[in-house]
Amino acid sequence: MPRFLSPDWVAAFNDALEGVEVPPSATEGSITASSGDFSVAQLVHDVPSVDNGGVTDVGTRLEVSDRGLVLSSFDPSSHDLEAVANVTVSLSYDDAAALSRGELQAAELLGTGRVRVRGDLSVLVAGQSALAAAAEQLSALQATTTY
Question: Is residue 62, in this structure, part of any structural domain at all?
Fold first, then answer.
């Protein structure tokens, strides 16, 4: 069972989405996303560390292209976040885990100010649409993820 945001979880995420095609409707409404190639970064704060019992920040980047969806990890302390993706979302581990489990909707976070968004907001909407189209493939990963 992969631990949320771990390298094993990222690999399982990519395995689940292998061959998934992004529907054209996912990129409508965004000049950047309409090219078919865009990226969404997620910076998650205070992720519990299994190794030392502390907490750390973890970055993931979802790339959407004509080749499909690919998630990768990055160290947010060594990257210029504005150069990593078209839009970056920053949130707490608890909120990211609740989103992953389906217990919370992104609109709730935006409405309460518990998430910070930098960059092209329309790309964030396109990224959410692409993930929604792949939700069925991600359901097995959601069921086996540990938090």
Answer: yes
